[in-house]
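User: Quick sanity check before I run a bigger batch. Here is a single chain. Can you write out its predicted 3D structure?
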Amino acid sequence: MTPQTPEFDAVAGRIVFCLWTGPEIMSDARMRALWTIFRNTGCAVAFITRDTVADWVKPGFPLHPAWPYLSSTHKADYLRCYLMHHYGGGYTDIKSTSKKWGPFFDQIAGSDKLALGYQELAHGIPHITGDFGDLLRRSHHELIGLCAFIFKRGTPLTAAWLARTEALLDAKLPELQHHPAIHPLDQTGILLPDGTPSPYPLRWAELLGEIFHPLTYEHRHQLLLLPIEPSFASYR
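Assistant: Done. Predicted structure follows.
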């Protein structure tokens, strides 16, 4: 069974996705972290790079036209959403882990929940302001974090996630075409090497956290909270 076959299900296959979407050379710390994912999760790891992304593009469902203009970080933000909707399965940032993921896959497969993740921290939601942001931070113990999770494919949750993400990219596409990312961590207003603010039209969390946290709040009763998180110690 290949990713292009309609019945491909990465939860059933116990597949954990890791992404490195730019041309940048991975640091020694990242390489060591990646090795812990291969060594410790006990699951098949699909390590996707810019050279292998095309292998995971589902026929009839191309990547958004904004893809070439995104920073490496925002490409990874978009791609994890795309993969979770079309294939499901696990995702982890390239951070060190000592966790076995088999029991987590068993838990989500045997439940009626739509996604599994670690409990988000209040300070993990700094990017949403106002009363709603305060509500999300008060409710953080009901939400899952962004750095490691498992989703069932093709659910109302993943469909809404992808739809909101692609609607944002639709709106930003003309600006992205005029001001594509020029470095992997590009974001609106960051100072460029020449001291001028970046005109790149996406905020740091606009494509992921600003969509993901409100959406998981809406679906908070359909989430499993389990300690799947990686280490958040120095990883760069």
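The first helix runs from residue 28 to 40.

User: Great, the batch can go ahead then.
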